[in-house]
Amino acid sequence: MKNPLPRAADLLLRQHARLALGVLLIYWPIRLYQNLPGWDGAVLRRELPFLLVEGPLLFGLLLGWVLLMDGLQGRLVHPRGGTGRLPPQLLALLVAVTLALPVNALFGLVRTRMHAGFERAQSAPGRAPGAPADDDRQRRRMNNGLTVLALLAAFYLTANRRSARRIQQLQLHAERLERAAVQAQLDALRNQVNPHFLFNSLSILAALVDTDARLAGQFVARLATAYRYILEQREQARVPLRTELDFLAAYTFLLTVRFEGKLFVALDVPEAARDGYAIAPLSLQLLLENAVQHNRLSTAEPLRVTIALAGNCLRVANPVQPRLVPAASTGVGLQNIVGRYRLLTDQPVRVTEADGSFTIDLPLLPLL
Asked: Shortest CA distance to 67 belongs to which of 8, 7, 17, 6?
């Protein structure tokens, strides 16, 4: 079975180059300060040809090192097989330190010979062969330590950038899974609502045909409107607020016919807001169905649901009138709404129950 996560934690070439350049911009000025005997014009003119060659050489060394360290991370830190007994990060660090020493020695040898060649070409006075002076030994030790430190810094930056990239992958993967889960919940809700809703609607329609043919005709028209909306908006993440409210009007008509005199829905949303915002489809229908499912409805104590604009939210509120026998519920409907809005906006869906009232604030979304 393939790993669902792509192995895109490997860095791109421009990212490798950026890391190498960042280490070079810190390392090279310190190296120049440590090795140049002075900063006067004569010294700079004499060293300039060598510096013009050393800069690209250093960049090439660091770029090759970053590429090597990225490959090392890919094989040891996130391998396809086992990692052995040592923690993978520690193992990668030990290998990096082991490799840094010979790389530093090779670079030092290349640099020394290259510098000697420049001095001979310029006929600069050199030191007689033999043991190097104490200051040369000290400078070489400092150069070696500085180079190894730069290589280990490049290793650390590469590992850090790689880890950050992998975290981004995991977050993106988790978001995709969350979207898929929310969509699956929404599809399950549609499949659950449609049969029950259709069965209840047809039962009411059968009764209306014999008692009130005119109302039966209106009922059929609104039922068709509601089902057309459910089918048309199946794949949409958001719809204009006016479109959702038009559907809600048809759905509310069907419910008020079913619960004659027991359910009242008051809508207070300005025309400008209806045309200026969007909303997650079927969210109002789910909230209205949730209110009907969990509260008592009677002629003496009807359920009154209000839907009104409240700042940048659409507020759905109803009094808490618990049924004598609580209705069975999975809570999937409300969870689905909260999950969908979490993917659409940073503003949360606020659910409050206080002073005998149950209120849900749905953030209004911008039109696409």
From this structure: 17
